[in-house]
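Feature request disguised as a bug: please show the residue count (410) next to TolC family protein in the output. Example input:
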Amino acid sequence: MNVLSPSIRLSSLFLLFSAPALAARPLTMEQSVALALERSPRLIEGRAEAASAQAQLEGASRLIQDNPQLQAAVGPRFRDVGNTVELNLGISQPLELFGQRGARKEAAQATVSARQTRLESLKVELAAEVRQAFGAALAAEQELTLSQDALALAEEGRKAAEERLNAGAASHIEVNTARVELGRAQSERVRAQRQRTQAHAELKLLLGLDPSEAIDPDGELRAESAPAPTLASLIEKAVSQRQDMKAARFEWEAAQAEARLARRQALPTPSLGVSYGREENYNIIQGTIGINLPLFDRNQAARGVSSARELQARQNLSALERFARTEVELAFNRYLTAQAAAEVFGGDVLAALQENLSLVTEAYRAGKVDFLQLLIIRREALDARRGYIEALEELNSAKAQLLKAVGNIQ
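Example output, currently without the count:
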């Protein structure tokens, strides 16, 4: 039995516990959108519905919809002199001669197009949510960095207060206040870590990733520099290209085709066939023709249902057009507001605040400012940085919603 030396065992333990964790998966925003469109469980139902509609189209495209009907009759013929056996065989095929097949195929094709565009609309919505979640993850990263900076400043302030106390230039109140501020900074750092963990979990949920898989959002929230398009151009673009609008149009087309089919199914359906019989040792072959008489069942239920669906589809399309215009206007105004809020922090504002943040602790050590001024200046600078992060996150969210309202997936 081999026994490892204590030094080898200690080295093994050190390597075990110092081994780096599995590297986090780096993801950009566009990579996250592509991954969500590939793996998100939210698209499973939409893909299944599109495949189901395609199968229905294949069935509706058959030239003959109904199976042929086989008939047979056999029995004795009783006669005064010698009985005989009579045999009759026949086969007939119902035919659609009044455009039923064309209307059925048009309805199925429009349904396929509607399901496919509904799927594309789901992708647009999912992409917008991923962009929002990715922006929230980036903001959480920046919030965590900010909390770490605040913690370092609070620790530096505590040390400065203790130095001034030892030098007789500060009171115990200042030192205690500095310690309280340090505890507050530590609490903010814990909150920022928890917020970062939650943001990563929400993003992984949208991407269809395993909860245990670590991710590293790669990117930076920044203010927009390009001029915003006009509201009129965005509304026109939304009405023409939104996938849910296209789906509503296809659904209206399908409802119209179904209404035509229901009306034509109320017409008589002829059947053509051939029969064979044997009577008194003679073979008899005949052509047959039949026709149903729509006296009682004139497809009233299907006609009423299809008419109601056609009206509903037309009203849904009109309502969706009004909704799209309003949604674009709201999203556009939100985007302009967010852009203006982010621009407030531009220029020299953050630079000046950051410079004050760097100088104020040394000024406190030198006795040029008191501790209250130190806290005020520090909190103003940190609050301004936090406000800028929030403004950038809102701008990213507003942009994602505007893309969704217009119908853009990217």
